[in-house]
Amino acid sequence: MSLEEGLNFTQELIVEDTNTAIAHGSGKLPVFATPAMVAFMENTAVKCIENGLDKGLDTVGIQIDTKHIKATKVGKKVTCTATLTKVDGKKLTFQIEATDEDGPIGSSLHKRYIIDPIKFMERA
């Protein structure tokens, strides 16, 4: 594996109606939903490390501590950056930051665990 602390990945999305609190059932306003932001953050972490894992391995999320500090309207661009901050055996820790065109909107401390998908599914 080639997973080193400091590895990072950035991706963007444009907030659409399907990303809103209304669509996710987490509120009644047409703004970027917290569940949508969390999913986007987790996906950014997954993409950050996907090329560094040994063949046949995968990761699962085991913890996410998120702050959503600002609303983002439909049509605005959201940028998310995940940085691998700690590699502790099979446990990976990420710091994740999300911004829109006006500045920071959220952050997360996220942990993932490296697994063998076949063995994992046998135990599930």
From TrEMBL:
Ranges of residues in domain Fluoroacetyl-CoA-specific thioesterase-like: 15-116
Active-site residues, Swiss-Prot/TrEMBL: 34, 42, 68
InterPro entries (UniProt xref): FlK, FlK-like_dom, HotDog_dom_sf
Residues that coordinate or bind CoA: 61
Transmembrane segment boundaries: none
SUPFAM superfamilies: Thioesterase/thiol ester dehydrase-isomerase
MF terms (GO), sorted A to Z: acyltransferase activity
Keyword set includes Cell inner membrane: no
Keyword set, alphabetical order: Acyltransferase, Transferase
Binding site for substrate: 61, 112
Name of the protein in question: Dihydrolipoamide acyltransferase
